Amino acid sequence: MLRALSILLALLVISCGPVFSAAADETALRVEVKTLGGSPVERASVIVRFVEGRSIIKFGRKIRTTWETRTNTEGVARVPSVPQGKVLIQVIAKGYQTFGKEFELDQEEQTVQIKLNPPQPQYSVHQ
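Request: output the structure for the sequence above.
Response:
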């Protein structure tokens, strides 16, 4: 009985190996959004879109590839689980230029700092 239990436990550990290693292929992402002067930008929309990387299939199902959230009062937005690889981060905030850039996620926890520019002046060819 003890031998059968040991074999069953060994098989369970072997079969769960890919599950534990799959978690290492994800990143807990923190996005800090600030003005050029360093002030936090509150309630900015942060869109994270998975572009390419290690895998977007987990347990035989496609996993989520787009996340949308807003920054808090400190200008921070968090996405708890993003597949490692290339992501596009877009930030939209009232009174600032829209930001968009690709980033490579390759750590278990990663922080991306974004500085928003003020809007460009409007030009017209008609006076």
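The two ends are 91 Å apart (CA to CA).
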